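In this section we walk through a basic example: taking a raw amino acid sequence and producing a predicted 3D structure, encoded as discrete structure tokens. The instruction is simple. Fold the sequence below.
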Amino acid sequence: MTTADRPPADSFPRRSARTRRFTLGAPRTITVARDGSRVLFLRSGDGEDPVHALWSVDPDTGRERLLADPRALLTGAAEADLPAAERARRERARESGEGIVAYDADPDARRAVVALGGRLFLVDTDAATSVELDSSPGAFAPRLSPVDPVVAYVADGALRLVGADRPDTVLADDPDPAVTWGAAEFIAAEELQRSRGTWWSPDGTRVAAARVDETPVRRWYISHPVDPGRAPTEVRYPAAGTANADVSLHVLDLDGGRVDVEWDRERHPYLVTVAWRGADRLDVTLLTRDQRELVVLDVDAATGATSVALRHDDPSWIEVVPGVPARWGDRLVTAVDRDGARRLALEGEPFTPPWLQVRSLVAADDEGIIVAGSADDPTEVHLWSVTPGGAAEPLTEAAGVHAGWAGSGVLVVSSSTMDDDGAVVRVGPRAPVDPGRPPLRSFAAPSGPEPDVRFLTLGERGLRAALLLPGDLGRDQRVPVLLDPYGGPHAQRVVRSRLAFAASRWLADQGFAVLVVDGRGTPGRGPAWERAVAGDLAGPVLDDQVDALHAAAELEPRLDLDRVGIRGWSFGGYLAALAVLRRPDVFHAAVAGAPVTDWRLYDTAYTERYLGHPDTDPDAYARTDLTPLAAGLRRPLLLVHGLADDNVVAAHTLQLSRALLEAGRPHAVLPLSGVTHMTPQEAVAENLLVLQVEFLRDALG
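The resulting token sequence is shown next.
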């Protein structure tokens, strides 16, 4: 692509890249004060401004206030000064924003703490003022005491304390650089949905902290080919079948006392959640390595002694559900898979109806229980008020994907629908959402014309799909087909949200019939649907894409099945490469971005959840490996990979490319220097879309 071929400034690829896929300027990262007095959130200044600031809104009046502006707090470039640990945290969180991208607040949101460029700032949300704390360089992962202006944070692997009137001190440290305190390890942040490693007691007198020893974890090295004089970056990567970090939990007094929490870490190596229950006890959730057993421990904070409060078993795996376990009064709320549904349970007994697939627990307090879940349509997620022994009452009505946050008398709902270009956030009373209530201001840039999406239910398995056609397609005109899936666990592409189809709409405008399919393994359709990929992440996933394609062609005869391409990223990249390698009779070209090609090179928790341990389940790994299929490549294949990717490392693409070369099979490889799994760089994100289209046009004629 020459300079003359670059997209114009107002093109979709350019606008999508500049706006971080049209997310900048929208309210995000919401916290509702426990007493309902205020709501905190982050928002950048406009649709092309990546720098987020901290804001509050009064639930009664709707008045918004700017609380902390990183441009005013910092005199230098915060992003250039980010500690390496904070960059890693953002990569795990898929965070592409800048400025204030995370914060911690006390329960009533009277104070908040933010980390900027390795420095800490304490924010008074009443006065809308900030003061810099005298913290050590490289500070990240700050956690604010619930009662005092004291912050626990991590710097150089140590857990430290600092306050407005408290000098910086070490709370826990270790001389071994492989040991860190107070932060989440790779597996917790990447796969277990735990982004923190520090938890304050409600009275602010003690801190529960995770200690992570990465000594057992295999060392990998990520090189920098464009800078041969730069030493490779060492990472500790727990690949399938290899050792995990040794994670333990400890209760620390502010004066230096320490209590070790006791459990069999060899049997239950995964620390999932930690929650204080009063000032003296904790609930600690653990998983076995095969993730078939979950236990909730009742912990005595004074002695570290534990007893089992609850145990769940599953012959396949136990899904980690956001928000649980939790306490409703003195009773334990967990999630169980029962009667064909993911349900909430009190003390192990399910109480949400079996027609409701619970996605997350939003709130469990004196005012009731709120969940996010799907009923008969997995393309929609609604909020529901549920009561043990009672019915589930919907709190949202518009077809779409709704998320929620709640406090005393207050409910905040973020709604993404086909009617709105981006999420609409409303703050209101804890009741069914009033669609006429004014939303929080959003400065997000529009993604473009409303996409013409046909939602379909295809084949004997009722596969949920979305079809987008070129706008100028004639009645008898045949058009090449482009499948645009993710296709794997934990992610849906077929949802009733306009923004979800922004890129697909643009691809359709380039002359493709774009088909998006959620097959077996994707969420929202119940445990049996998700577990259909157990032991095989290839066969069922690919079969569903093929079946959906053929079923869609029966409904829409303008789809040209002699010109079918497929593209994807991460698991979608794996699926795209798998498609042309295993089914060249169906797929005629593929773009595989950051693909997993050998599951032995992917991380323990994700891979072993679905395929088992490679030593005991070698057949599962053999049937999902792409490299043995290399000699069968008969179609154009473009492999794209960021060389700085520490999630799906570039070795995946390079090993497959080597196998293809050794088999004499032509293919193309696009290495992205300095690019991670997220591809946040504007120029990279823009041109990747353009280059993919050019490749597919050439390949499909």
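Looking at the output, two observations stand out. The two ends are 18 Å apart (CA to CA). The chain has a mean pLDDT of 95. In the next section we compare this with other chains.
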